[in-house]
Design goal:
The protein is of the alpha/beta class. It folds into 3 domains: about 220 residues, Pyruvate kinase, C-terminal domain (Pyruvate Kinase, Chain: A, domain 1, 3-Layer(aba) Sandwich); about 200 residues, TIM Barrel (Alpha-Beta Barrel); about 90 residues, M1 Pyruvate Kinase, Domain 3 (Beta Barrel), CATH 2.40.33. Strands 5-6-7-17-18-19-20-21 form an 8-stranded parallel β-barrel, surrounded by 8 helices. Strands 1-2-26-25-22-23-24 form a 7-stranded mixed beta sheet, sandwiched between helices. It has a 7-stranded mixed beta sheet with strand order 10-9-13-12-11-15-16, with no helix packed on it. Helix 13 links the parallel strand 20 and strand 21. The structure holds adenosine-5'-diphosphate, phosphoenolpyruvate (PEP), potassium ion (K) and magnesium ion (MG).
Amino acid sequence: MSQSLHLFSPSSSSVALPKQYLRFTPSVSTSNRRFPVTSFPRRCCFSVRASASASSDPKVLETENGKPEILPHVTASPEPAAVSSDSASIEVDAVTEVELKENGFRSTRRTKLVCTIGPATCGFEQLEALAVGGMNVARINMCHGDREWHKAVIERVRRLNEEKGYAVAIMMDTEGSEIHMGDFGGAPSAKAEDGEIWTFTVRALGSSRPERTINVNYDGFAEDVTIGDELLVDGGMVRFEVIEKIGPDVKCRCTDPGLLLPRANLTFWRDGSLVRERNAMLPTISAKDWLDIDFGIAEGVDFIAISFVKSAEVINHLKSYIAARSCDSDISVIAKIESIDSLKNLEEIIQASDGAMVARGDLGAQIPLEQVPSAQQRIVQVCRQLNKPVIVASQLLESMIEYPTPTRAEVADVSEAVRQRADALMLSGESAMGQFPEKALAVLRSVSVRIEKWWREEKRHEAMELPDIGSSFSDSISEEICTSAAKMANNLGVDALFVYTKNGHMASLLSRCRPDCPIFAFTTTTSVRRRLNLQWGLIPFRLSFSDDMESNLNKTFSLLKARGMIKSGDLIIAVSDMLQSIQVMIVP
Ligand SMILES: Nc1ncnc2c1ncn2[C@@H]1O[C@H](COP(=O)(O)OP(=O)(O)O)[C@@H](O)[C@H]1O
Ligand SMILES: C=C(OP(=O)(O)O)C(=O)O
Ligand SMILES: [K+]
Ligand SMILES: [Mg+2]
């Protein structure tokens, strides 16, 4: 296998790169670009190739029906008609299209947005409003609702994608083996007052539900609990003290009053520390979770998020289960980091997973609250290093469940997650059952865009060392190409990075570098396109393409120009995982 660095002119003959293009001396300073593009050769292309395969005729493209198609040369100004029926074959959603046309490349949002779907947002029009507002991933939480309800939501999101061109991915979040309360027989909530005595029981409660009595889903509860234990609802939103045990019933006095919500999480504290043996005894994936996972596989969800992950083992197990059950096995597994064990085994869990979620709700109930910010920072950093997408979740805009505007502290929290360069931010109750789901999404959107812009302007490039992660020589080449391409893109002030990727790997390697410009990720399947929608800075397009980069670029330029999404003179850098090449080009 030969390794060669080629530099070729438009006629493809090898020439040396003129010195001034190597040093990138700035001549004119425009807004973002350090030199005028007119001083650049029309097409400057250098490729790193892992194999010495002979390049095919650059002007012939295999069409979908297998017939060679002659494309106009890149320096010509191709009309949309020139690429025949293929012009309809690029898929991008209307929101991205408008955003690119109106605001230009630079101001597109890089941080992705996940919305939990619940009663406030499950209708088709409500889902569409969220898609218009920038939702990249719809999350369904199997803690709530039944499978019929979730199935209907999945169908609506799929219809939205098909009819309107969105690539909204679906994330199914398992209930997990947490200890939680039951519901209140239909009542939306219950108020616990200071000093009141409540009964927590493992008995099944029929329709004649006694007053101030709550079901607990953990059979060992009454045996395990000790008089004097503290019982925290939702990490401390309401607090009780255990005062008496009578068979399956545990009497508790309310010490911190508040609102009890159906199926709220319960944790137990003794002498100031969390009693972990409780849910440590429960399996990470419960029998009900396995049924939900089967449901998710059958419905073809894009992501399955696993609650209360303790070790890498469960992730590996689930991944082989999915691989054995779904033939193309393109469901990504997201590890929710929300327990002490998951922090202990963080690196190995993230290495085994396809992504992670900083599930601050439960995490904040398991570790002291003041440790949550540093845990968040560490999780985000480990994910970035290991090239796994990371979602920051829970209470980002909690007050917006009730109010149309966030607190300043919430805005600061969202800003911090954006500044840490997390891939995605997640809404929970704000979008599931809040009064202002679209407004909450708009806040995440505007804060993200503003903080990203500020970061670029200040040029606060973090000096994060990104370790080599490739497990093969070819992987290492891809990594080097992406690191170099991202660096070049920043130094040259290019308008966009283009990546042609079949399985999405090159796109994620580029995203990992967090370059200044957006990354247009072209991929051949709609499922990869949806999955890329979770990753920082990627604008995913579906496009059929070949191994011939010149044809691919010609085709992409004419398709995007026809839709007004790029224009002549735009400077781009293209990389691909077929050729392992880097090309610097000015859109003709
Ligand atoms: N599918 C659903 N059906 C009914 N209510 C839901 C649903 N999904 C979410 N919710 C409501 O939104 C709240 C916030 O959602 P989330 O954070 O995902 O759950 P949890 O509070 O259980 O951690 C839930 O407590 C619940 O009241
Ligand atoms: C996202 C979380 O998980 P869930 O909403 O399923 O409890 C969390 O605990 O923060
Ligand atoms: K869950
Ligand atoms: Mg949780």
